[in-house]
Specification:
Blueprint lengths: L7 H10 L26 H5 L2 E3 L4 E7 L27 E7 L1 E9 L1 H16 L12 H38 L1 E5 L4 E5 L9 E2 L20 H16 L3 E6 L1 H4 L26 H4 L5 H12 L2 E4 L3 E4 L8 E4 L5 E6 L16 E4 L11 E6 L7 E12 L7 E4 L5
Parallel strand pairs: 1-13, 7-16, 8-9
Antiparallel strand pairs: 2-3, 4-15, 5-6, 8-12, 10-11, 12-16, 13-15, 14-15
């Protein structure tokens, strides 16, 4: 029989025979049961305001004011000196942005760290000894612990990504600015969307052709509304809107307008006694066909969006799925091409600025950190990012309420 404390394989064999699994056989984890995931596709960084790395937390950018002169060159006699162009086009305004740090950490309790360490040592000590030793499968428990750490990292990343999406979509695009208050930090930013372009009501605004919400009946005119909007935007700002963000429910309402009855191949003699529901009287004419027609006529590319994030007050068992963007609105945006003539910065329509952090080796973007020095049996891992979106052309957007807000 090997001597206790013997070196090499004898020491490992002795340890295995007395059943070291009893050191860590306290509880057995069967894994994690999770709910069906909710829609969480993030479009903010992908389609609206992609990352732009900057070298400092504080950035400035200049606004070049429009030339307010006559707009046309004067006539010149053959021998006359050309008139000097007025130079107040060179008068500037200035914008400023501050990049804010967002971060989150998970703390692993001492018993988890100890158990992980014990299992790791047993796995190493019993490697190659076969499966007849009746151990509590330390390799499996080590693997489960590593999966737990990976789940926590994915959880932190998702919440950081949700925060960025919240800043871009829920705040900036929907409200025209960002208002934040967690009782520790409070700030508010206004990106300058004019009040007559914010949350305008398609039912009561005289600029539009519909006299009802799109979910109130069939006598509404989506194509007419969008053409009227683009005409007004061009007359007011000199741009046309070629992108629109809205919910699939709004998009699915377009084809229910009685304006599409003729396109569905239905001939109605006189006034029908009740509205015609195209769901029951035709095939081949559907939501997709109506959306293609709307885009063909108006030139607006619609982006369907219904992602949510989850909220649960501390101590509560009630989880609420909150939409990033309201279900009954359409948010109209200019195309990047429309802004090419007036924009000579890296911002374009919008960018999410991200700046360096020491835990990211002074690189921008996401960073991670670990902390073990305070308590040798405690392990803290965190993830963060320094980021903030900037929308210099918010005045070229339009927020329209098309469903009954009640």
């Amino acid at each position: 029989m090997p001597v206790a404390g013997g070196g090499g394989s004898q020491g490992s064999s002795y340890a295995s025979q007395i059943g070291l699994d009893r050191l860590v056989r306290k509880e057995v984890s069967l894994g994690t049961i999770r709910e069906i995931p909710v829609p969480e596709e993030h479009i903010g960084l992908r389609l609206i305001a992609p990352f732009l790395s900057v070298e400092s937390d504080d950035v400035i950018f200049d606004y070049l004011k429009n030339d307010a002169q006559e707009g046309m060159a004067p006539a010149r006699a053959e021998d006359a000196e050309a008139e000097l162009a007025q130079s107040d086009i060179l008068s500037y305004g200035q914008g400023r942005a501050a990049v804010i740090d967002w971060s989150l950490a998970h703390r692993t309790i001492p018993s988890d760290v100890t158990r992980y360490r014990d299992n790791l040592l047993i796995q190493q000590a019993t490697a190659g000894l076969g499966t007849s030793l009746n151990l509590n499968d330390p390799g499996r428990m080590v693997e489960q612990f590593n999966r737990k750490i990976a789940r926590e990292e994915a959880h932190r990343m998702r919440r950081l990504q949700n925060r960025i999406e919240w800043m871009i979509v829920t705040q900036s695009l929907d409200t025209g600015g960002i208002a934040y208050n967690d009782s520790k930090i409070k700030f508010a930013v206004d990106f300058g969307r004019p009040s007559n372009q914010q949350n305008q009501d398609v039912k009561s605004d005289s600029r539009f052709r519909s006299s009802m919400y799109y979910d109130e009946g069939v006598d509404f005119d989506p194509i007419g509304d969008f053409i009227a909007l683009n005409d007004w935007m061009f007359d007011t700002h000199g741009v046309r809107l070629h992108r629109a963000l809205t919910s699939p429910k709004v998009l699915n309402s377009f084809w229910l307008s009685n304006r599409f009855i003729a396109m569905a191949g239905i001939v109605v003699g006189g006034t029908p006694s009740s509205p015609i529901d195209l769901n029951y009287v035709t095939s081949g004419w559907n939501q997709e066909a109506a959306l293609r027609k709307v885009k063909e006529v108006t030139g607006i590319d619609f982006i369907p969006y219904e992602s949510v994030y989850r909220t649960r007050p501390i101590g509560s068992q009630t989880v609420t799925n909150t939409r990033f963007f309201p279900e009954g609105k359409i948010l109209f945006l200019p195309s990047e091409g429309d802004l090419g003539e007036i924009d000579d910065t890296e911002l374009g329509f919008a960018k999410t600025l991200t700046s360096p952090h020491p835990e990211g080796n002074w690189g921008s973007g996401y960073y991670e950190w670990e902390q073990q020095e305070v308590n040798p049996w405690m392990h803290v891992r965190g993830t963060g990012i320094k980021a903030f979106p900037v929308f210099p052309y918010m005045k070229y957007t339009f927020s329209l309420q098309v469903f009954d807000p009640s």
